[in-house]
Amino acid sequence: MFLRSIFLVFILMISFSVNAQVVSKIIIKGNERIEDDTIKSYLDISPRVNFDNENIDQSVKKLFGSNLFQKIDISVKDSILYVSVVENPKINLVVFEGNAKIKDKDLEAEISLKPRAIYTKAKVQDDVNRIIDLYNKNGRFSAKVTPQIITLPQNRVNLIYKIQEGPVAKIGKIVFVGNNAFSDARLQSEISSKETRWYYFLSSSDQFNPSRLEYDRELLNRFYNSRGYADFKIISIITNISDNRERFYITITIDEGVKYKFGEINLESQLQSTNLSLKELRSLITTKSNDVYDVRKVEKSIDLMIKQINDLGFAFVDISPRAVLNSEKKQVDITYFIGESSRVYINHINIKGNLRTKDKVIRREFRLDEGDPYNATKITRSEKRINDLDYFEPTSIETVRTDQTNKVDLNVNVQEKSTSSLNFAGGYSTSDGPLGRIGFNETNLLGNGQYLSLSLAKAKKSLDVNLGFTEPYMFGRPLSGGFDLFSNRMDGSQNQYRPYDQKSHGSILRAGYNLTEDLIHSFYYKLARVDISNIGSNASVYIKDQEGKKTTSMIGHALSYDRRDKVVNPTEGYIITVNQEFAGVGGSTKFLRHSAVARNYYPIINDDVVLMMGVDTGIIQGIDGKKVNISDRFNLGGAESLRGFDSGGVGPRAKDQDAALGGDILYSGVAELKFPLGFGKEIGLFGSAFADAGSLYKLDVADQSGIWDSNKLRSAYGLGIGFTTPMGPIRVHYAIPMSKASFDKTKNFDITFRTDF
After folding, report:
1. Over the stretch 448-469, which tens digit does the pLDDT of each residue have?
2. What φ, ψ does residue 122 adopt, rounded to 5°?
3. Are residues 619 and 523 in the same domain?
4. Which residue in 62, 248, 341, 359 has the most C-beta neighbors within 10 A?
């Protein structure tokens, strides 16, 4: 036993003498840029200190880990440690080739290797993966990136990433599994991801996007929860990509559950307020027992109650719906629970994102000020007024808590959009031939909220020029003011329908103010001069009577009551405008004119299908023995008033020359249903079905025998298409007259185009 122990110790001593070594010095070879001391700092070996093979292995690992070297060799000879290295080259340039869809600067921001950095294969591969990930986020899953190295003197390289971007991966098919109540087509219409079709060339909805699928998950939940399926579940969403990585196939497996109705509806409150009436709050609840369960009604009930409570000064009231599902009765019992809260006041109103629009333009639309009690109705109204400016993308006002428990901040984050537009319109008139119009509008001049417009309309024998300017807040007060200048010329001496030349020019001064939040009163003064000349020798006596120069000096006012949900593309509410004008404040013409316009909007299916109904009426009569001039009478017909008829194609006409004379009494009506065409909202394509009707009649002339005149109701129906392109909206109408007078002039087709910049 003793001898065996002596033998083991002897063996260990021999092993130690073989593996444990000591070197007298360390010599570095092959380094060009990197100092010896830097290399030595990575070594686990020092002169006159024992080391073994493990120390050598660790030293090699540390040197490679520094990413400074592509080759390392460590050896020992005659008590000298030799470290031989080959340095990684230094990057001179990083170049991208083949990229068209993603800019160089965006790729440069994504990669880690930059000029003057040390090149390593691992980092290059990491950057290749980063670039491919960036392309994947942009929907290009077939993108390929090949790195290429060009060796330069002094151990430098140019790094080139050769990119094959490939096409955007589209959605080839969307399949639903487990749906019985609704078809695949119906469910596909409810989600934002779409199967690729040719008409999605202006949209990205058919491009595969994982984040969009998460949004679709919410859309499906909401769709089913709004139709009684309270326990609806999405079991899985599985995506598969084609071999060429250009098509995705999506399978959505769902569990519809059963259809529920509302059961018991209760209301509980912990809110302490003498002004709070639970009975009044209960009247706002839209969920009723035995109605089909609809989460939208629950949300609407909460919104109505919160708004009512907010108006009492409670900004952060919490109303939580506590739902209990009874699977046996297939009922959902709802208890609306109102938590505790306290009254708060407005601390600061913060506006961000307005680079061009001045703060004052936004602040003056607020219906409450800093220091005022919190009022949800006024905040909602302020939000609507800001959106009605149409200077920004849809904007919401955010209520934010502050360090003071009884104060809140209102944050408005706006995103500005184009407020300048260049309008084009074209058409064809049976009397004037081809015609066109170009107009410039700026609704936010220099960020001051001012309105500037300039238009030029040209037909074969006519020219109209108009300039307008409006300041919505004169002298820093809610009083609008502005002016219009106009000059119009019509050469009609050779036109059988309008056999005379007419020149008119003048100006309008106007101002307006709000009587109430929704009722606006405006007044104006107009001075114009009209010259009718060069009347054909064979012209009707009703035209010849109009020859000469006439001056109109007129005052007028208008009352407008606006209860629309929004000014641009309204979906609900109405507007009524009544106008009165008196010509006789000097000048040679004397008349009294009354007119009224009304439009009512009804959402039929959410905000997607909207019915608009409207009426226009007008009457004009001469005073002090003066007859009404042809230039002051009403006209009817065209895309803006009575589709299916030519501009000025309806109303009294001279028999001998079939010339349009205008009329003294006007009425018209329109009913138009606007609806989506099933291509997705993002396409901007919608359809319309409309019916127009109206009449224009009566002339205040002594001899009626030479006039065609009828108070017969004219009507037309038709279809229209609207298409919002990146360049601007296009509107096309085709109308067919149903009833007309024998002397009316019809026109079936209209097209208009507008571009914004």
Report:
1. 999 998 888 776 667 788 899 9
2. -65, -45
3. yes
4. 248
d(C-alpha 113, C-alpha 127), whole Å: 7
Residue 3 confidence (pLDDT)? 44
Amino acid at 444: N
Task: Read off the amino acid at residue 262.
Answer: F
Query: What pLDDT does 424 receive?
Result: 64
Does 13 reside within a domain? no
| pLDDT tens per residue, range 122-170 | 889 999 999 999 998 888 999 999 999 998 988 889 999 999 998 989 9
Structural domains of the chain, count: 6
On whether residue 749 sits in a domain, the answer given is yes
Task: Tell me if 178 sits within 8 A of 214, measured CB to CB.
Answer: no
- Which tokens sit at 360? 């004052």
5 located within any domain:
no
- Nearest-5° Cα angle at 225, 221 to 226: 120
- Residue 316 belongs to what domain range? 261-338
Same domain, 561 and 672: yes
d(C-alpha 391, C-alpha 416), whole Å: 6
C-alpha span between 398 and 410 (Å, rounded): 6
Query: Where is pLDDT greater, at 355 or 509?
Result: 509
Query: Is the sign of the CA dihedral 49, 53, 57, 58 positive or negative?
Result: negative
DSSP 203-271: -STTB--HHHHHHHHHHHHHHHHTTT-TT-EEEEEEEEE-TTSSEEEEEEEEE-----EEEEEEEEE--
What single-letter DSSP state applies at residue 314?
B
> Residue type at 36?
D
Enumerate residues 6+ apart whose C-beta is below 8 A from 14. Answer: none
Residue keyed to tokens 């001179």: 92
Pairing of strands 450-459, 462-471: antiparallel
Point out which residues pair with 392 in neighbouring strands.
416
Q: Beta 247-255 vs 170-177: how paired, if at all?
A: parallel
In the block, residue with structure tokens 């936010």: 444
How far CA 564 is from CA of 185, 516, 567, 568, 572, in Å, comes to 34, 15, 7, 9, 6
CA distance 234 to 148: 46
Selection from 265, 258, 255 nearest residue 329 by Cα: 258
Question: How many angstroms separate the CA atoms of 422 and 418, rounded?
Answer: 11
Instruction: Give me 402's structure tokens.
Output: 């502050």
Instruction: Give the CATH number for residue 139.
Output: 3.10.20.310
What sign for the dihedral angle of Cα 256, 260, 262, 266?
A: negative
DSSP conformational letter for 473: S
Q: Could you count the other beta carbons within 10 Å of the beta carbon of residue 624? A: 7
**Alpha-carbon torsion (585, 587, 591, 592), positive or negative:** negative
Residues found in the chain: 757
Residues 708 and 587 in one domain: yes
Q: Are residues 81 and 94 in the same domain?
A: no
Phi-psi domain of 313 (left: phi exceeds 0; alpha: psi -120 through 50; beta: other): left
426 lies in a domain? yes
